Amino acid sequence: MSFRHLIDFGDLSRQEWETLYARAEKIMDAPNEFLDACRGKLQASLFFEPSTRTNFSFQTAMLRLGGTVFGFADPKSSSTAKGETLKDTIKMVSAYSDVIVMRNPREGAALAASLYSEVPVINAGDGGHMHPTQTLADLTTITRLRGGVDGLAVGLCGDLKNGRTVHSLIKALAKFQNIRFYLISPRELAIPDYMRAFMQENKMWFTEVSGMESVIPMLDVLYMTRIQRERFIDPLEYERVKGVYVLNRRKLNRAKPDLLVMHPLPRVDEIAVDVDDDPRAAYFEQARYGMYARMALLMDLANQGHRMPPPVEIGTKPVCHNPNCITQTEGGYLPVLIKKIGGVDCCAYCDKAL
Ligand code: CP
């Protein structure tokens, strides 16, 4: 693998994804052959935000590969609660472990952590920005159940503004051929400008609509997402949009017989329980495949060994105005990093235009 950290799905080439998928399939088919693949390795699980699937599937992935796990699921139980910086936490934890799996509510936190880590950092979700290992789970599900990803019509429905799984999935699908995207959301929850610029730059076919029912018959994959209440600054705004999309059996009647209904989970009310027993409902399998995909990833990253990171310049003051960007809380030392998206200068931590 050419990548050392997994921060963004853009870090992986299509060939690297195919290698990971082939390994995930082998693990699914013969798990006992991999019992020692990470023997003696230690995974640090740093969850600054709640999680069920990502945290437990990473933990069980490492345990099934013969390694061990330590960490926290509540930052109040770590020295973060005493005011320790992310940099210092990562320097310490990377000295104790072989791989770090981190979820953080701040956009760009995983990239920031990778600057100071001796060991590979895996982004397990950074605020409303990216969630690349959910995308490993998603692509594994589509490939296993549909045989491939090229040429699909994919509906992404719900909170496309704050839904990090959607952003990572779009980044990944840019590596495939002839994908058509139906982006289904209320206007206030449409994809962020940096994702729209990314799709335009990569000449991806997409249309933005507010109604789900009119596009359902065209779809091969319907990827439902939760309205992310925790990302709303104004609770009244959440009240206005909550419950806007509910997929139920009646609506599914108009869909293709081989549609895949996916959801990164947790769900609130956007998929009615009467869909769960429909053969097209793939979301529980999707969560299970996520563990195998993470096993395939850990086999590479946890075995890379320690390497001192190159010296990092001490930043001056934050230049990004996104209130959720990691530079807003750790900006006293983080270097200013800028990248171009669609020809526009953007913050390299959170991708927002400067
Ligand atoms: N899909 C996902 O990230 O779920 P959790 O928040 O439970 O980890």
Concise overview:
The protein has 354 residues and is of the alpha/beta class. It has helices spanning 14-29, 53-64, 86-96, 109-114, 132-146, 164-173, 193-201, 235-241, 249-252, 283-301, 327-330; strands at residues 42-47, 68-72, 99-104, 121-126, 153-157, 180-184, 205-209, 221-224, 260-262, 338-341, 344-347.
Question: Could you describe the 3D structure shown?
Answer:
The protein is α/β, with parallel strands linked by helices. The protein has two domains: 146 residues, 3-Layer(aba) Sandwich (Rossmann fold), CATH 3.40.50.1370; 150 residues, 3-Layer(aba) Sandwich (Rossmann fold). The model has no long low-confidence stretch (mean pLDDT 95). The chain is 32% helix and 15% strand. 48% of the residues are buried. Strands 7-6-5-8-9 form a five-stranded parallel β-sheet, covered by helices on one side. A four-stranded parallel β-sheet has the order 2-1-3-4, sandwiched between helices. Helix 1 crosses helix 5 and helix 5 crosses helix 6. The protein contains eleven helices and eleven strands. The site of phosphoric acid mono(formamide)ester has 10 residues, from helix 2.
